Amino acid sequence: MKYTAAADRLRSTGADSWAIYRRAKQMVADGIDVVEMAIGEPDVPTPDFIVEATVDALHRGRTDYAASLGEPNLRAALSARYTRTTGRPITDDQIACLPGTQTALYTVMRTIAGPGDEVILGDPMYATYGPVIAACGATPIPVPLRAERGFRIDPADIEAQITPATTTIFLNSPHNPTGAVLTAHDVRQIGELARNHDVWLVADEVYEELVFAGSTFVSPLADPDFADRTIVLNSLSKSHAAPGFRSGWCVGPAEFCERMRPLSEAFLFGSQPFIADATAVAVQAPSPVAAGMAQRFAARADRLVDALHGQTQLLVNRPAAGMFALVDVSSTSMNGLDYANDLLDNGGVAVMPGSSFGSTLGSWVRVCLTQDDPAFDTGVERIVAHAHANGAGA
Ligand SMILES: Cc1ncc(COP(=O)(O)O)c(C=O)c1O
Predict the structure, then answer these.
(1) Centroid of chain to Cα 222
(2) Dihedral, CA atoms, 125, 359, 319, 48, nearest 10 degrees?
(3) Which of the listed CATH numbers 3.90.1150.10, 1.10.287.110, 3.20.20.450, 3.40.350.10 matches domain 14-44+289-389?
(4) Is CATH 3.40.640.10 the classification given to domain 48-282?
(5) Ligand 1 site: residues with CB under 6 angstroms?
(6) Across the 394 residues of the chain, what is the mean pLDDT of every consecutive 10-residue run?
(7) Which of 52, 53, 128, 136 is deepest in the core (most CB within 10 A)?
């Protein structure tokens, strides 16, 4: 049978990226002792008040169809939230609600990037960005993120890639997988590039509330000079430990939201009203669980740095935010993929190879910071023992 060009383009994406994770899951199912440090999920349950607001909404019969860009109460709650966090007025018609950042990402990109268009983004990148851009028929233009810069994207590297075909500069701060957080200066410089070259500035901010002490989150949405071209994406998934709620949104110019509406109606026609009610309650104040997660993840990152730098030749990039830390494994003489396979088979720890996130992390692996402390510490001990067995002990 005939399939679309988009289905063909996406056919091989994803499968290899998650091979280690799937293998680790199978090993655990087979009764093999593996510490799972490949995939990160919030380490607390969804707060009770969100669950209760959902149940209450269900009892109130909020199971009808919803408004296609989001229920009015949720758009109002989100506009109030962004007015509070950006310090400038954000109106309800600048909000569009979608099931998770992922769906928002797809719908946004489908609205602003198509065949012949180029989207500039950092490499490494979150694993779904490439497929989303490919699904739209646009071309991803990767800009290498360098360890020497703490993996913060360099505005000069972005500028070097801008062509007449560029429609979008795509940012992810705080960044997965590197944990980098863009500074106010970075955001200002990149915003100026977007304005001077008249392109969109899209920012995935899903780790906004998981910033570690010592770093400050800055959103381009807060800068009125870029208001006509900035679109930010976020959700309850990380900040409120609620990935299964699939409650996400984007914030951008009102005209952009209206132009996106038919696309959203074409595949969704409104999210669930009971999830909208719970989200409206959730976003009224900073998340009660995010600060604790950020503290625990930062403390685990510190323990990883101390153990690996003290006892091995492995090098850790200390993250400034998020759920992950990158480890440079070149001292083992293995590339990241071989190392991750060897560590799983002979060390009993599952980590993601850096190659799952683009072309620049070939000698790195990504370690999750979300396991509870005993499991995390066992995983770190095993990584140390494995390094010693592979000529990378201190
Ligand atoms: C950078 C990044 N963006 C988006 C997502 C997906 O978020 P959501 O659950 O809101 O769709 C993730 C999930 O891991 C992520 O790491």
Answers:
(1) 20
(2) 40
(3) 3.90.1150.10
(4) yes
(5) 100-102, 126, 172, 176, 204, 206, 235, 237, 243, 248
(6) 88 76 94 94 95 98 96 98 97 98 97 97 95 95 96 98 98 98 98 98 98 97 96 98 97 98 93 97 96 98 98 97 97 96 97 94 97 97 96 88
(7) 136
